[in-house]
């Protein structure tokens, strides 16, 4: 990893070049800083261009969205533009599991890389603590029989921890006090899957964060009335734990371009985008803000448009769609894919026929992005094994299927210099008038129809199949939840469908919806489709086995 040999600049130098005064940021050590509370309201500069980065359906190891996002920011900087990249904070779950960290790699990395990938500024710990504090207060409330009474069978709040541990998918808690006992079945979620993390990413400011925490639904009374965190008087303490976590973090790329790294909701479970506040600050400080959404466009980008843009009021000028030769060849269906297993060697061998059999996945993502309006630049993240014929085939296909531009990115190997062609393409598209952002559904549409719109127009399903439990929950929500909420669907990221084995562009399927829940604090309805684990397990050879510390304190083995 070349980035480990690059000395970062003092964070005060990065902040000053970005136009921040000493009152606008608080250094945390030499190379990290927290931005000041309320900075997004004090900046009165013209808004810069807003670029969102998404991808085609990835392999289990990912296709380099973060590397491409970092590279694009550095490429724009090389071309004379002031650019900021806004990314999610990495989770320890994938870091110690299989996928690796979220700070880029090689010549397209963030610094200080090991600190960002590990404890960073403590935001994840604050989210974990706030989540578990509420869980403890719920159990204490039930044990003591306090008002409002909570029916233990209706409690929906789960604890959180940021380490993959499949043994915590189902747990039984037991408490006793003065002859009273409380015992119930519950579970842990990975911290990025928690509603508190979603709230942190969507909150407009500290007071909005406090209001959202208070709206969290924890369960129901014996008569069916909703019980919230505010009614347990828990939200104030939760907000206190999150007071500093709501402030975006400022770091730098390995070429000293500013980077905001803040919040980290998963895209296959939650809404998969970094914070609203970071993007709002970025658009007032930079000519270009590059923000990334998780997994493929069917997961992160759809939620970026329908959930995040509605919360922030920002509209993107251009979408960058990252793809790779190996991912599109995987979608030919010739090789079985399993998370936790190495990718087949054949994916790194020139094979134009396999590419052509899987390239329809790119067409599907271009089509679904076309519904929303912004122009799409396809970024081909180049691997050393890619042949020129394969790259030319993707370029020709993408332009034929609606891409505004296509550029090959070599940011991993060459840093910002390897992303200048992509930066040029983004700048050319941004010079054109921005088309209005189109939403696929109005907020006042019935929840069933919103889900059906996403399933048919984004995933390509024929229809939706609501299980009995989902229908029961829908009936319940009609009497309790607001009707004007967006939808957040949890599903596999490895297929446009709910089934990870259906590769390419699946057709002829119905999306099964097992459950629908009200994430009142986050402000969306949360639907589950297919098998989705909110607490992943570790693979046979966890990446944690490769991590160690040298005698002089250097952390080695992080990916």
Describe the structure.
With 559 residues, this protein is α/β, with parallel strands linked by helices. The chain has three domains: 19-121 and 245-430, Rossmann fold, CATH 3.40.50; 124-239, 2-Layer Sandwich (Domain 2, N(10)-formyltetrahydrofolate synthetase), CATH 3.30.1510; 447-529, Formyltetrahydrofolate synthetase, domain 3 (Roll), CATH 3.10.410.10. 33% of the residues lie in helices and 20% in strands. The protein contains 19 helices and 24 strands. The strands form six sheets. Strands 1, 2, 3, 4, 5, 6, 13, 14, 15, 16, 17 and 18 form a twelve-stranded mixed β-sheet that branches. Helix 6 crosses helix 7 (195-202) and helix 10 crosses helix 11. It is globular and about 75 Å long. The model has no long low-confidence stretch (mean pLDDT 94).
What's this entry about, in short?
This protein has 559 residues and is an alpha/beta fold. The protein contains 19 helices and 24 strands.
CATH class of the largest domain: Alpha Beta
Query: Sheet bearing the most strands, described?
Result: 12 strands, mixed
Strand tally: 24
How is the CATH topology of the largest domain named?
A: Rossmann fold
Mean pLDDT comes to: 94
The domain tally reads 3
Helix content: 25-40%
What is the percentage of strand-forming residues? 15-25%
Shape: globular
Distance between the termini: 9 Å
| Unreliable parts | none
Structural class: alpha/beta
Number of helices: 19
**What value does the Rg take, in angstroms?**
23 Å
CATH architecture of the largest domain: 3-Layer(aba) Sandwich
* CATH fourth-tier homologous superfamily of the largest domain: P-loop containing nucleotide triphosphate hydrolases
